[in-house]
Specification:
The chain is of the alpha/beta class. The protein is 38% helix and 15% strand. The chain has a 7-stranded mixed sheet, sandwiched between helices. Strands 10-12-14-13 form a 4-stranded antiparallel sheet. It binds pyridoxal-5'-phosphate.
């Protein structure tokens, strides 16, 4: 069976875990601090704050920005459901906007149409790792007087006009779920240029504490911490930090390999009338976090039947990125703007296998099967 995705771990990750286990390790310990420093340096960002997942990172980011009940946040419906959920977790209301069908990224016009007097933020997703047009959304956010928060869960290593996604962000959140390029099992990272916001995030991730356990231990004196606000346990452990550090050292290699595989798919599938391949602008480096194609009206088979047919050939696929507004948890909420592109993608998109050590002959089998069936 060819899986749709698979994390890549080497001997170095293994020894980092064993060494950490055998040391005096804590949550939010020295390896987390080192991982944060290396991550910030990789992006050229001022601050990186490690958390327990991408979802908790988004929740914390929205809350630290002061969002809460009565506030609206524009989100694409076409995203992993965590995007919308994080807004609800922060106590605010997600308002769904549509995407551009070519890139699956949020449509500026649709996001603008979804604004209201209650809108406080736009949660811009770099969908499947493909960078969204940051400048266009910064301009929209400035016009509307709202904050731009970036869901960069999938976008580590992707570049827009030469700059890494998250490198220029006021605030962005990455995920280290096993499905993503860089994984720590579960985990996430918030990056920001704002030191005051970073301090608030560090405190909120650990129950609103006045000083981290690491700093307390390092103080070399009897320090009594205090809890000023009600926060959460969204800490990353040193075990995860140790793995993250090793994986971060591999990131450019991961991206290079994914680009090889992604471009290989695109070369083979381009020109088939039933298949719309990913659209990658020349000023973008796409990390190919997810290789999603869409069946066009010329396809001879519907998406769900295609997934079953792939499975019979021993090839796992996934439905494309989901339409959150169609899930039972959001279905009853009224829509402010129509979502035609989202609904088309939800019906017709499929994710093909792509992972670091995908063998060329396995990829050839996926390609051959797709060309025969679609
Ligand atoms: C994976 C993902 C998340 C959630 O990240 P977790 O680490 O799994 O909590 C959020 N948004 C998007 C777009 C994602 O792909």
């Amino acid at each position: 069976m060819i899986p749709v995705s698979r994390p890549w771990f080497g001997a170095e990750e293994e020894s980092a875990v064993v060494a950490t286990l055998r040391s005096r390790w804590v949550a939010e310990g020295p390896r987390v601090a080192e991982f944060e420093k290396a991550f910030a340096a990789y992006l050229g960002q001022a601050q990186a704050i490690a958390v327990s997942s991408g979802t908790t990172g988004l929740h914390l980011a929205l809350q630290a920005l002061g969002l809460g009940p009565g506030d609206e946040v524009i989100v694409p419906s076409l995203s992993f459901i965590a995007t919308a959920n994080s807004v609800v977790h922060a106590g605010a209301t997600p308002v769904f906007a549509d995407v551009d069908l070519a890139t699956y990224n949020l449509s500026v016009a649709s996001a603008e149409a979804a604004l209201s007097s209650r809108t406080r933020a736009i949660l811009l997703v770099h969908q499947a790792g493909l960078p969204a047009d940051l400048d266009a959304f910064l301009a929209l956010a400035a016009r509307a007087g709202v904050t731009l928060v970036e869901d960069a869960a999938c976008a580590i290593g992707s570049r827009l006009r030469g700059r890494l996604v998250g490198g220029d962000s006021a605030i962005a959140v990455f995920s280290f779920h096993p499905r993503k390029l860089l994984t720590t099992g579960e985990g996430g990272m918030i990056v920001t240029s704002d030191a005051t916001l970073a301090a608030r995030l560090r405190s909120l991730r650990n129950h609103g504490v006045s000083m981290s356990a690491y700093d307390r231990h390092a103080a070399g004196a009897a320090v009594i911490e205090s809890y000023g606000t009600i926060g959460y346990n969204f800490r990353m452990t040193d075990l995860q930090g140790a793995v993250g550090l090793v994986q971060l050292g591999r990131i450019e290699d991961f991206v290079t390999r994914r680009i090889e595989l992604g471009e290989r798919y695109t070369r083979a599938l381009t020109g088939h009338p039933g298949i719309a391949v990913p659209s990658v602008a020349p000023d973008v480096r796409f990390n190919y976090q997810t290789y999603q194609v869409r069946l066009t009206e010329k396809s001879r088979i519907a998406r769900d039947a295609l997934m079953r047919a792939f499975l019979e050939e021993g090839i796992s696929t996934r439905r494309g990125i989901m339409a959150s507004h169609r899930e039972p948890s959001y279905r009853e909420r009224p829509l402010r703007v129509p979502l035609p592109a989202t609904e088309t993608a939800d019906r017709d998109a499929i994710v093909l296998p792509l992972y670091h050590d995908l063998e060329p002959h396995d990829q050839d089998r996926v390609i051959k099967t797709a060309l025969e069936l679609v």
